[in-house]
Amino acid sequence: MERKVKVAAVSYLNTKPLLFGFRDHPVMKMMDLSVDYPAKIAQQLIDGEVDVALVPVAIIPKMKEYHIIADFCIGADGPVASVCLFSEVPLHEIKRIYLDYQSRTSVALLKLLVRDYWKLSVELIETTDDYQDKIKGTDAGLVIGDRALEQRKVSPYIYDLAENWVRFTSLPFVFAAWISNKPLPVAFIQEFNNASSIGINNIPGVVAENPYSVYDLTTYYTQNISYPLTPAKRQGMQQFLSYLR
Ligand SMILES: C=C(O[C@@H]1C=C(C(=O)O)C=C[C@H]1O)C(=O)O
């Protein structure tokens, strides 16, 4: 490729370990990096504004062509902590659920759990802007990312979507993966994977760089999020995509 590869990543704390090793890495000579919330970068990849992005896997069916280019992802094999249904009342008393406009995968996962696992009859409400202050009474809300870590301090009832997926299917879950909309040079992909692995192998270094008082990031990066895109995670992803079809 003559020009630089355009890469978009998620702007949340969960992506810091993946991006840690890019600074000062040789791969930066081959690429330009931007960050935004997941639904935004999903649209950028679909529209061809970027070549590679850490996108919600739920958008894969919308892509004419896709390639998973990296061995790392935003996944979980138990509670993920930052993708939850938050409520003031227990699950079966919820009447309406606000959906997170920043998410694609978790919205699809929530709909699946509501219909096939929890079997709730609730009204689902799309959002386009801040909505967390509407999580009151029998109105619950799906929240993802850093805002979910904050909401954990507010809502008495917290239903973790990754934990419930694992109970439902006995498989791990993949929220987002590094996906390109065109084939990319092997040399770039190798350097990209090398850069991604650096922070994953140095979580103490990542935590030291990101002071955060709301939630323990060592726990988040080592117990909640699971970064390696293993065969079991690929199986979980295929299972999820087959539910979407
Ligand atoms: C675990 C998370 O995974 C995220 C959830 C996504 C989604 O719901 O579409 C997309 C990207 C990930 O950053 C999180 O953001 O809390």
From TrEMBL:
It is an enzyme of class 4 (lyase). CDD domains: PBP2_Sco4506. Pathway: Quinol/quinone metabolism; menaquinone biosynthesis. It catalyses: chorismate = 3-[(1-carboxyvinyl)-oxy]benzoate + H2O. InterPro entries: Menaquinone_biosynth, MqnA. It comes from the Bacteria. Pfam families: VitK2_biosynth. The keyword Lyase applies. Its EC number is 4.2.1.151. Keywords: Lyase, Menaquinone biosynthesis. PANTHER family: CHORISMATE DEHYDRATASE (PTHR37690). Belongs to the MqnA/MqnD family. MqnA subfamily. Catalyzes the dehydration of chorismate into 3-[(1-carboxyvinyl)oxy]benzoate, a step in the biosynthesis of menaquinone (MK, vitamin K2). This is Chorismate dehydratase. The lineage of its organism: Bacteria, Pseudomonadati, Bacteroidota, Chitinophagia, Chitinophagales. The gene is mqnA.
